[in-house]
Amino acid sequence: MEDSIDLRPYILALLRYWWAIVAVAVLGAALGIVYYLSRNEYHATAWLAISEPSQSLQFDERIESTDELDLMLEAYPQLAFTDEVLSGMLPAIAERTDGRINDLVTLRTHLYADRGNAPRLLRLTARADDPELAAFIANSWAEQMSEAIDTLYRNPGGQIEFYQAQITDSAAQLQTTEQALVEFQRQNRQGIVKNELDSLSLLQSSYLAERNALQLLQDDVQALREQLLADQVSPLTFADQLTALSLQLQAFGSHNLAVTTADPLQPSQVQPSQAQPFQLQINGPEGNLTTSDRNTQIQLLDSLARTVESRLAATDIELPQLETRLLSFQGEYQALVNEFDRLTRDREVAQETYLTLVRKLDEVRISSGDIGNRVQIVSHALPPALPQRPSWLQLVMWGAFAGALLSSAIIVLIPWRQQQVALSS
């Protein structure tokens, strides 16, 4: 069988000493009234309003400010208790209180800060035993806090000094790149090398055209020679002589020829030519342009073929040499172009960086001077008419309850103690 607890002795003790419980409860209520009457602490409150910036400037999208006002609002209650803010108001408060509040630790015990129901309101409350002193402390605190927040807005994080230093460095870099470009242009052979390159390109084109012409001429000479060798019976015609003469003129650089006949029985004939540098006049149809002897003409064609072959060999020698010179000039020209482009690019980057920083500095200056950023005191603290006291009814109820509870606990301990003594004996 389990042990049971007998509550009768405790209940009887409480009933026997009920008058003591009531007396102690009355005493607790009286103490609550005494505490209520002894509370002479006055609370004075000043209100600050932090408004949104009236202008949002961004001259250059490549540098974007990351400050967010809503995040800064959460830090303002802690900012209000910093040494820098409180140090500005401490001398005046120490003088006003005759030295009773002369250090930051003591001053902080008289202050309370929090955000109001509105997200951009800051409540600053000062506690003191004098209503005038409480209002003075609260208003001094609000003024110091307003100046501190306004300083953050006008020069957040020292941005003006930062951008000024960056602009100075950027201007020096821009001047360096500009001077480097000037020095390069003083000895830049880009135009000279380009002219040399163009001249060699034209010369190469001429050699290539000449080689093609000589190869065609070589084929024509061989064809005419084979034609003359194939027909050993017929006499050498005037047309064959004219063809041979035309091939000789082509070999020595004359490509325009006009031929007329002075035979009164035949009309004058002119071969098509645009320039017509000179004309050959044949007196009669039996005149000779070269020679009428077939063997002699073949020998002349063989000599012409050797001349063409010699010129082709010379061209084949000149073209590789020209190619080597062209490649050399091309490399030099491209190196000059690359260097010029690099210096120009460096100058453009330095110039763009300088202009971007100048725009950002102007943006920061305009934003920091915007009166819409200022923190305003929307309500100064007035001396409170009554001290800050809790409800007297609650104090009386809590005092009576605490007295009754304490006396009941003491009365219950008496029979419990007697039981313990009896058990031990």
Your description of this structure?
- With 425 residues, the protein is α+β, with helices and mostly antiparallel strands.
- The chain is built from eleven helices and six strands.
- The strands form two sheets. It has a four-stranded antiparallel β-sheet, covered by helices on one side. A two-stranded parallel sheet has the order 4-5.
- Helix 9 runs parallel beside helix 10 (294-368).
Beta strands, count? 6
Secondary-structure element pattern, one letter each: HHEHHHEEHHHHEEHEH
Strand order, main sheet: write it out: 2-3-1-6
**Radius of gyration, whole Å:** 58 Å
Structural class: alpha+beta
Index terms:
single chain, 425 residues, two-stranded parallel sheet, 11 helices, rod-shaped
Could you give a short description of this structure?
With about 425 residues, this protein is α+β, with helices and mostly antiparallel strands. The protein has helices at about 10-15, 20-40, 70-80, 85-95, 105-110, 130-155, 160-185, 190-230, 240-250, 295-370, 390-425, and strands at about 40-50, 110-115, 120-130, 260, 280, 375-380.
